[in-house]
Design goal:
Blueprint: H1 3-29
Length: 49
């Protein structure tokens, strides 16, 4: 592996980490992770804008 391979793998690992963190935070807060328009849970949404 050369340095470019390592940098690409590190960038992918960081992107996966932040994506999983967002999914985990949304599950903990009860949110659906998307905008309120067209959301089936919009009537009972507790998010603050």
């Amino acid at each position: 592996m050369n340095i470019w391979d390592i940098l690409i793998l590190a960038a992918v690992a960081i992107a996966v980490f932040f994506a999983l963190r967002k999914v985990w935070k949304n599950k903990r807060s009860g949110g659906c992770g998307c905008g309120c328009e067209g959301c089936t849970k919009s009537a009972g949404c507790q998010t603050k804008k």
